[in-house]
């Protein structure tokens, strides 16, 4: 594998990682609801999810998502329902007045909960598996040793993602002073929960892995 191909993959991984999406939204919610520590653990959960998908891609298991429409749809609907549950339950708590509106709001998302949410959200997103399956082959050598290079590329993507998540958590932590104001927090909670529901609907009605 050439140095140029390695740099091209790294640049691609950076651009895809910093593009705002579901993972960024989840981190912002975790920091708002549980502080920086919860955000860091949520990022670790997302990274673990990427590692699972990366290992499955190297092992060839994610090929099932492309070969089997049924397998893809089952995982897609599971992920969609999970996102709808996260966003819907947050909206319910908000509109039922269960969001604490004082100057020092209670921390509700624990680090372990954030870890679980980050991991589950990523593992139930079949598009990550398809991403690895479609992107990695473009940068792998045709000769022997492709599996070793695939592991390296997955590692690069995971490291880039983890660094970016820490940056997002740091920036969100700095903004927490403003976001923690009762009314701002209330409407931020409602906004992010609504976006989560939107992601869930989008995942539910997304096209098949085979395009």
Q: In terms of structural class, how would the helical and strand content be classed?
A: mainly alpha
Total E-strand runs: 0
| Whole-angstrom Rg | 18 Å
The share of residues in extended strands comes to under 5%
The helical percent reads over 70%
- Per DSSP, the total helix count is 8
The largest pleated sheet is described as: none
**What oligomeric state do the depicted chains represent?**
single chain
Overall mean pLDDT stands at: 78
- Reading the helices and strands in chain order gives HHHHHHHH
Query: Low-confidence runs (pLDDT<50, min 5 residues)?
Result: 99-106
End-to-end distance: 29 Å
- Please state the overall shape, judged from the principal axes of the Cα atoms: globular
Q: How would you sum up this structure, described in words?
A:
The structure is a single chain. The chain has 211 residues and is an all-alpha fold. It has a domain at 3-68 and 102-181. Helix content is 79%, strand content 0%. It has eight helices and no strands. The chain has helices spanning 3-18, 22-59, 63-67, 69-95, 111-123, 126-135, 146-179, 182-204. Helix 2 packs across helix 5 (111-123) and helix 4 (69-95) packs antiparallel against helix 8. The longest helix has 38 residues, at 22-59. It is globular. It starts with a helix and ends in a 7-residue tail after the last helix.
């Amino acid at each position: 594998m050439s140095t140029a191909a390695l740099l091209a993959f790294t640049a691609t991984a950076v651009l895809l990682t910093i593009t705002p999406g579901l993972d960024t939204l989840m981190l912002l919610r975790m920091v708002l609801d549980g502080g920086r520590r919860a955000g860091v653990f949520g990022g670790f959960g997302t990274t673990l999810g990427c590692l699972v998908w990366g290992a499955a891609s190297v092992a060839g298991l994610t090929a099932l998502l492309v070969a089997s429409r049924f397998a893809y749809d089952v995982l897609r609907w599971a992920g969609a329902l999970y996102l709808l549950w996260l966003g819907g339950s947050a909206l319910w708590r908000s509109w039922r007045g269960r969001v604490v509106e004082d100057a020092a709001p209670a921390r509700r998302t624990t680090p372990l909960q954030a870890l679980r949410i980050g991991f589950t959200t990523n593992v139930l997103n079949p598009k990550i598996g398809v991403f690895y399956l479609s992107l990695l082959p473009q940068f792998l050598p045709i000769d022997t040793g492709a599996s070793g290079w695939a592991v390296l590329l997955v590692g690069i993507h995971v490291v880039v993602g983890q660094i970016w998540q820490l940056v997002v958590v740091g920036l969100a932590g700095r903004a927490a002073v403003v976001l923690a104001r009762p009314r701002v927090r209330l409407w931020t909670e409602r906004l992010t929960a609504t976006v989560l529901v939107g992601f869930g609907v989008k995942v539910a009605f997304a096209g098949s892995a085979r395009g």
